[in-house]
Amino acid sequence: VSPKGARAASAGMFITLAAHVAAMAPGTNIGAAHPVSVGIAKMDKVMGDKVVNDMAAYARSLALERGRNADWAERAVRQSVSIHAAEAHRLKVVDLLAEDLPELLQKVHNLPVKLNKQTVILKTQGVPVHIMEEGLRTRILKHIADPNIAFILMLIGLAGLYFELAHPGVVLPGVVGALSLLLAFYAFQTLPVNFVGLLLIILAFVFFILEIYVTSYGLLTLGGVISLLMGSLMLYRTGDPGMAVAWSVLIPAVLIITLFFVGIGVLILHSQMRRSMSGVSGLIGERGEAYTDLNPEGKVFVHGEYWQAVSEEPVAKGEQVEVLKVEGLKIFVRKAS
């Protein structure tokens, strides 16, 4: 278990217990192997007890097979206890301590190891070291399964789908949104997701979308912000260390999504309040020129077109007029002030 700051928790503890030689670097820790459910579904009490008992027995059998501390291994599963490297060595959870790989190779030289039914002597003095690097596929999937990346992918996916539904035919937001959501749900299969937290985040987006079409004086936006914040905090069950959205990711994400939908709402509100510039309603308030005398009827030239017009006061040919209203194919005007 290395380098300093690393930990062998959950499955890492079982791998360490199963190793023929278990070593830890100073500043590392091991334990916290209590099982947690992954995905959206949560285990009931009966199933949870069954899994805990099974894993505790498995951890104990591994420790006994390698001559290590079986009692501590069982407590690591049942009680999620965790200990540092020096304590693990003292309790015989691991075999030795080593600062780095060269020191480890020196300490395990001539060490007897039992393989199957026979004992072999390790010869590690001066042997070449081959580092097995992670493949590209493994690195990509490991990053996608990070709780923070999965959270961001879900937010991008929901925002992209909203764009596509609000503006059909744009295509790109819908494609990006669909891909992001699929990747997020792939990650959720390997993470302890809280179903209520996921629903709260989806509900927040519903509130933001409704704010655009319903006059709520900001109440729906406020509800969306609270729902998004609470859902983000509750998205992962916290039984396993590190399974939570980091504050450095959560706060900027909530602010960006909130500002995004508030900005869209403001733009839509401005467009609805703006006077129409086309069609019949777009003529009201427009100015034009009397093409003939109006007394009270005549023709005017407005908005690039000739219209039959009516004026309550006489208007001479060539004078400026202003449109008051439109009825069918006839407009009512007055002299422009």
TrEMBL record:
Q: Which UniProt keywords apply?
A: Membrane, Signal, Transmembrane, Transmembrane helix
State the compartments where it is located.
Membrane
Give the membrane topology: Multi-pass membrane protein
Q: Which Pfam families match?
A: NfeD (PF01957), NfeD_membrane (PF24961)
Q: Where is the NfeD integral membrane domain?
A: 148-263
List all membrane-crossing ranges. Answer: 144-163, 195-214, 219-238, 244-269
Q: Which stretches make up the NfeD-like C-terminal domain?
A: 281-335
Predominant location: membrane
Mind telling me which PANTHER family this protein's record contains? INNER MEMBRANE PROTEIN YBBJ, NODULATION COMPETITIVENESS PROTEIN NFED
- According to UniProt, the name of this protein is Nodulation protein NfeD
Q: Which organism is it from?
A: Desulfobacca acetoxidans
